[in-house]
């Protein structure tokens, strides 16, 4: 049992004190050595690794004293008056009330909490204390700490952490107050965090950490807003960022964590690459590394800024540890050789795990779109160093939100909050540009957060492409404790779940949609709204109307209010035509005969020669662009002509079948490159034809030119093809009549490719301007 006199947290006596003694009746917290002393071969850490920071060590665990009320051995003494016995019983009863719930005390906006993890055996109760530190002292010599980066994970928060408070911080008036002030209180955390704390705990010294789930009162909106704004400070000032991937040590005799983490030193050794790639004995190790990259930490959105801001970082996987720089290098090398290893991995998984993998299913064997690969690329390029040693971000907030959209978060409002602190706009937090960026506000519902972000993007960029990008996480099905209300979002907000690769672990199931036509903010793939002097900038109005009405009857108290937003936006553009024909979405890379014929192809399975391919056909199949939005290579037409010789008996083009046959030959050729681009354009999209409106009049019975192209899978006959000013591609809108307002409104269906209308041509063809109310 801790001595109450020793429970006060006391900082060092002076700024030059070498050892930092936070007095808990336990050994001191010691300042870790410099990163240069961290052994590069620290994989599975043993007690002999005395040169490592305490936070990196995984020692053999001894049994420390346990906090137990039974150690007081309270008994009713003999020969004592009953009144005193009664008082003693009440005293004992009071002492036995161990386990009250910990209640946070509000901290000032210029302070943060640090978690002091007390020594203990691996299986012992988790015991901590929380101290508050001024922002100016965070990460100083007096208050060193490591920041934890982890995935909150599934499961209920039923793992208990005991918190020992500082009695001197409370007013004590009664015996019960004294006892209550000195007894540990309970906090509950999720299983993954509890396991991380057990692995990071030391047997003899206190470990100083910052952990978001504990160091921030998650139920206090105001405090959460303040602390989230300071995440850049917290992670950049940490001595080290401990990346906790998780653990599978007890699941099997050869866990993924052991095989993958012990393989990393070999992967980063260039002298043995030929052996690692050629010897079959290493296939299982490569497979384990591939499986490790699919763990949930790599799909979590908050880890992006946590890693990006880290001065030093280590990767912890069960009892194994390595430097992030080593891990980063290993993944980059894995990506470099992935095409070589892919056939071996497919064969291995089909044999070792036939229930989860099949030899014919290659969709799961991709590394380019895995969160781990994106993190490696981002961490290597996001920041650049200035002459004074400071680092600055190279990417704007819109680019970060859209390019890292596949990363998940439990609260969709953090879609923006999790990336805000590492954006280019926040390089100078006091600048006017930074002040315009929407600040975290957990008092707002999801629609308000998303609307403010879209409005900021449109205003700052003068473009409307954000309407076409799949960047937003869907609303939760059940509210969090801090969720003001659940909302149904408008059609002009596109969801990550509908993107080419989905969100989080969806990427493991392979491609599910075509690549974005608008691309990322800096891509400029198309110019449907013109460019240079002909560019038509966005014209948009965001409604901020909201109505609140009493919800239900509540006697004796005010009724809760149901809030309804006006979610419409008013935009301007030109209407080009009306959809008159559509195919079903192309499934799994199959281009139908009907699409090819309507693009000008004449199918004759008995023909001995292949006729010349119409430009409209070969250009439309690739959306008139090459890889990454670049101009089409000159050989695309020839490649398309060769591919048409491989039509099935039904006249269809089976992209994956042709690619697989070509891959088996081991001879990459222009057909493969062309088909990969066709797949990126057509996957799960519909081919459409639309009748163009008569210029100026736009009268429906005066329809002229046939428009052709690709549109979202939800497109229907009767939808409108529109160019919104400020949008780089045409879009599909669906008109609906609002009887209450006696007006036509439009649902935003999505972006489209329309042949011959992607570079501003429509702006010179006399279409009349009009406003569209999107809902």
Please supply descriptive tags for the structure shown above:
single chain; 775 residues; alpha+beta; nine-stranded mixed sheet; nine-stranded antiparallel sheet; 22 helices; 26% helix; globular
Distance between the termini: 63 Å
Q: Percent of residues in helical segments?
A: 25-40%
Segments where pLDDT lies below 50 for 5+ residues?
1-78, 94-98
Strand composition percent:
15-25%
Major sheet description: 9 strands, mixed
User: Within the largest sheet, what's the order of strands?
Assistant: 5-4-2-1-6-3-7-8-9
Structural class: alpha+beta
**Total number of beta strands:** 26
Overall average residue pLDDT: 82
Helix tally? 22
What does the model show?
Residues 43-52 have a biased composition (Polar residues). It comes from Ampelomyces quisqualis. Among the domains are: 4-34 and 53-238, no CATH class; 330-550, no CATH class; 586-683, no CATH class. The chain has 775 residues and is α+β, with helices and mostly antiparallel strands. Strands 5-4-2-1-6-3-7-8-9 form a nine-stranded mixed beta sheet, with helices on both faces. Strands 14, 17, 20, 21, 22, 23, 24, 25 and 26 form a nine-stranded antiparallel beta sheet that branches. The protein is globular.
């Amino acid at each position: 049992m801790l001595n109450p006199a020793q429970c006060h947290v006391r900082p060092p006596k002076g700024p030059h004190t070498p050892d930092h003694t936070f007095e808990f009746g336990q050994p001191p917290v010691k300042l870790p050595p410099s990163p240069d002393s961290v052994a590069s071969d620290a994989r599975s850490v043993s007690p002999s690794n005395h040169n490592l920071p305490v936070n990196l060590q995984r020692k053999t665990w001894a049994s420390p004293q346990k906090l137990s009320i039974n150690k007081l051995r309270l008994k009713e003494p003999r020969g004592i008056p009953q009144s005193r016995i009664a008082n003693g019983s009440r005293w004992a009863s009071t002492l036995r009330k161990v386990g009250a719930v910990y209640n946070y005390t509000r901290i000032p906006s210029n302070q943060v909490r640090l978690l002091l993890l007390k020594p203990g055996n691996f299986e012992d109760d988790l015991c901590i204390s929380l101290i508050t530190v001024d922002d100016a002292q965070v990460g100083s010599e007096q208050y060193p700490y490591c920041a934890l980066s982890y995935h909150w994970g599934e499961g209920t928060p039923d793992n208990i952490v005991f918190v020992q408070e500082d009695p001197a911080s409370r007013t004590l008036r009664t015996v019960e107050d004294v006892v209550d002030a000195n007894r540990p209180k309970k906090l509950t955390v999720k299983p993954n965090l509890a396991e991380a704390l057990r692995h990071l705990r030391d047997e003899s010294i206190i470990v100083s950490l910052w952990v978001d789930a504990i160091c921030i009162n998650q139920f206090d909106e105001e405090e959460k807003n303040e602390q989230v704004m300071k995440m850049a400070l917290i992670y950049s000032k940490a001595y080290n960022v401990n990346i906790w991937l998780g653990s599978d040590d007890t699941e099997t005799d050869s866990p993924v964590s052991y095989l993958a983490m012990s393989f990393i030193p070999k992967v980063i050794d260039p002298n043995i690459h030929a052996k690692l790639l050629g010897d079959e004995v290493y296939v299982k190790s490569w497979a384990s590394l591939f499986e490790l990259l699919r763990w949930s930490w790599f799909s979590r959105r908050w880890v992006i800024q946590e890693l990006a801001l880290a001065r030093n970082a280590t990767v912890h996987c069960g009892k194994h540890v390595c430097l992030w720089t080593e891990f980063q290098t290993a993944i980059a090398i894995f990506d470099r050789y992935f095409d070589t290893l892919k056939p071996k991995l497919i064969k291995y998984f089909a044999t070792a795990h036939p229930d989860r993998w099949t030899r014919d299913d290659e969709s799961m064997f991709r590394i380019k779109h895995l969160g781990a690969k994106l993190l490696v690329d981002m961490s290597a390029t996001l920041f650049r160093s200035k002459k004074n040693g400071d680092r600055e971000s190279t990417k704007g907030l819109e680019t970060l939100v859209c390019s890292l959209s596949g990363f998940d978060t439990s609260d969709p409002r953090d879609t923006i909050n999790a990336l805000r602190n590492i954006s280019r706009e926040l390089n100078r937090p006091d600048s006017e540009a930074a002040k315009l960026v929407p600040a975290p506000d957990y008092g707002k519902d999801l629609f308000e957060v998303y609307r403010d972000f879209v409005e900021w993007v449109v205003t700052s960029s003068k473009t409307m492409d954000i309407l076409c990008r799949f960047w937003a996480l869907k609303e939760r099905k059940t509210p969090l404790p801090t969720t003001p209300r659940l909302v149904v979002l408008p059609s002009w907000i596109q969801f990550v779940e509908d993107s080419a690769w989905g969100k989080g672990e969806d990427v493991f199931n392979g491609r599910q949609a075509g690549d974005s036509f608008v691309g990322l903010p800096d891509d400029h793939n198309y110019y449907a709204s013109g460019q240079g002097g002909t560019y038509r900038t966005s014209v948009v109005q965001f409604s901020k109307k909201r109505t609140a009405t009493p919800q239900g009857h509540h006697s004796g108290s005010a009724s809760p209010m149901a809030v309804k937003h006006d979610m419409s936006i008013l935009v301007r553009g030109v209407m080009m035509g009306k959809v008159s024909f559509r195919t079903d979405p192309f499934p799994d890379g199959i281009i139908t005969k009907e699409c090819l014929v309507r693009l000008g192809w004449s199918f004759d399975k008995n023909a001995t020669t292949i006729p010349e391919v119409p430009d409209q056909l070969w250009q439309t199949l690739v959306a008139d662009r090459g890889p990454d939005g670049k101009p089409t290579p000159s050989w695309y037409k020839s490649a398309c002509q060769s591919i048409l010789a491989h039509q099935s008996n039904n006249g269809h083009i089976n992209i994956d079948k042709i690619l697989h046959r070509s891959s088996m030959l081991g001879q990459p050729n222009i057909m493969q490159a062309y088909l990969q681009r066709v797949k990126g354009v057509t996957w799960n999209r519909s081919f459409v034809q639309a009748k163009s409106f008569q210029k100026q009049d736009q009268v429906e019975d005066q329809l002229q030119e046939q428009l052709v192209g690709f549109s979202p899978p939800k497109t229907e006959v009767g939808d409108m093809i529109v160019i919104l000013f400020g949008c780089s591609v045409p879009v599909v809108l669906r008109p609906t009549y609002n009887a209450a307002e006696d007006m036509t409104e439009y649902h935003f269906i999505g972006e489209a490719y329309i042949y011959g209308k992607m570079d501003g041509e429509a702006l010179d063809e006399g279409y009349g301007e009009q406003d569209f109310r999107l809902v």
